[in-house]
């Protein structure tokens, strides 16, 4: 079950959100006993601190939570999301008429996202405090956004033993059935007969056949195609990863997981557009038929690609999927992938770097990201680096030597496969390395909420 707001007319306890510079004034407005209690408890309105106000009968009359000062709030997001875990069981409501609508929405979404627990393999206590939807927020929209994000987290957190290409395909078929979308699948050697050679090559060494999933939803409106990297596990292939680097490779399908979470948001909200989702689902494994360093492969689009590292496989499966997407008119093609370590070195785990040649689209996305607390950062399609992905014996190099600008050269590689439609690419991490408000350690979506918020302007819907 995905998190929801409390429904019905049950009595609820108020939560007061108090800015630090207004805390003493707010405290002084209470009867002496309560004011003394707040002061003696050390409540000052500092960001995230909380205090329960008792009634004479011992029950809780209200909750005070500190909203700090503006400089402190800039150093993070969903600051109050941890409140639910600290409150006793019961129903609560937000009492913050002066709180800006955007802050109310962030509070409410943070509460929902903070309810998430991955408990498939081990029981986990969930917060028992329940929140009524704050006045003035779109509760239905927030609930559906949270459901999409929780789907993404579940998919990334599930190990490959239970989330291989076949299981991921089942998830997509399930979404299609739930929302009335059409899903088709190209499986195994059919990839060769239908001209998806790179997807087949990367996945052929696995005991679970590679496949391309194609989901279509919506009959009218602008056309949006989402492409997600679905490498369900990445050993590195014959360029085998060391053990420490392989430990988190269940998350190498984080692009597919994030795209599917975004697709769930779009479909559940009924956005007026035509949605297509393409997921190349593979395992990059080691066997006698694995592709090799030095091989030259031919893509669906006809370009030849020299393989200088079998651990740079994500861009290969995406290349065939992007070329396929580009064969059909679209108003926007958007790819998401856990593609390069270089992106993490550049911006760390919290920011989702994205690429686009459209300055207007970049501005719209950045504005939307700030509004919904889903930070993104634009990176450049730097044309002078094109020569770095052009080796001596083939059209393209999947892993340029030297190590410089790794995220940019990967993005430039992908751009070679989209000629007709506006293109945007996200090089995400898909993992929260340490618990943070509304984001427990583990799989996490990045960029999806920003894209969702920006779509009306990006596609004029």
UniProtKB/TrEMBL annotation:
One of its GO terms (molecular function) is metalloaminopeptidase activity. Belongs to the peptidase M17 family. Keywords: Aminopeptidase, Hydrolase, Manganese, Protease. SUPFAM superfamilies: Macro domain-like, Zn-dependent exopeptidases. Residues 309-316 form the Cytosol aminopeptidase domain. One of its GO terms (biological process) is proteolysis. InterPro entries: Leucine_aapep/pepB, Macro_dom-like, Peptidase_M17_C, Peptidase_M17_N_1. It comes from the Bacteria. The keyword Isomerase does not apply. GO terms for cellular component: cytoplasm. Gene3D superfamilies: Leucine Aminopeptidase, subunit E, domain 1, Zn peptidases. It comes from Actibacterium pelagium. This is Leucyl aminopeptidase.
């Amino acid at each position: 079950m995905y998190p929801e707001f409390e429904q019905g007319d049950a009595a609820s306890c108020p939560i007061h959100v108090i800015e630090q510079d207004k805390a003493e004034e707010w405290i002084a407005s209470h009867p002496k006993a309560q004011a003394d209690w707040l002061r003696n408890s050390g409540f000052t309105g500092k960001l995230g601190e909380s205090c329960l106000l008792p009634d004479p009968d011992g029950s809780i009359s209200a909750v005070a939570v500190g909203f700090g000062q503006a400089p402190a709030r800039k150093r993070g997001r969903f600051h109050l999301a941890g409140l639910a875990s600290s409150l006793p069981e019961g129903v609560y409501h937000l009492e913050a008429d002066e709180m800006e609508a955007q802050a109310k929405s962030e509070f409410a979404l943070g509460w929902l996202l903070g309810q998430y627990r991955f408990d498939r393999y081990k029981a986990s206590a969930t917060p028992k405090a329940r929140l009524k939807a704050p006045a003035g927020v779109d509760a239905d929209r927030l609930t559906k956004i949270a459901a999409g994000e929780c789907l993404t987290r579940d998919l990334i957190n599930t190990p490959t033993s239970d989330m291989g290409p076949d299981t991921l395909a089942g998830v997509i078929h399930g979404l299609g059935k739930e929302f009335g979308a059409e899903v088709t699948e190209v499986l195994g050697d059919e990839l060769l007969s239908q001209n998806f050679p790179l997807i087949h090559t990367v996945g052929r060494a696995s005991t679970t056949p590679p496949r391309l999933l194609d989901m279509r939803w919506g009959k009218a409106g602008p056309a949006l195609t989402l492409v997600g990297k679905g490498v369900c596990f990445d050993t590195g292939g014959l360029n085998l990863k060391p053990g420490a680097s392989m430990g988190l490779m269940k998350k190498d399908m984080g692009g597919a997981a994030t795209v599917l979470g975004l697709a769930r948001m779009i479909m559940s909200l009924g956005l007026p557009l035509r949605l297509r989702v393409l997921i190349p689902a593979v395992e990059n494994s080691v066997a006698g038929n694995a592709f090799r360093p030095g091989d030259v492969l031919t893509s669906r689009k006809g370009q030849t690609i020299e393989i200088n590292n079998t651990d740079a496989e994500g861009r290969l499966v995406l290349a065939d999927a992007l070329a396929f997407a580009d064969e059909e008119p679209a108003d926007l093609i958007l790819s998401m992938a856990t593609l390069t370590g270089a992106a993490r070195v550049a911006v760390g785990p919290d920011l989702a770097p994205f690429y686009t040649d459209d300055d207007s689209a970049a501005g719209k996305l950045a504005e939307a990201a700030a509004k919904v607390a889903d930070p993104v950062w634009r990176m450049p399609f730097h044309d002078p680096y094109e020569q770095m992905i052009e080796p001596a014996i083939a059209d393209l190099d999947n892993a340029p030597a030297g190590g410089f600008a790794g995220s940019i050269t990967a993005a430039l590689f992908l751009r070679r496969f989209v000629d007709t439609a506006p293109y945007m690419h996200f090089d995400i991490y898909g993992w929260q390395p340490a618990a943070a408000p509304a984001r427990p350690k583990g799989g996490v979506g990045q960029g999806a909420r920003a894209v969702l918020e920006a779509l009306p302007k990006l596609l004029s819907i």
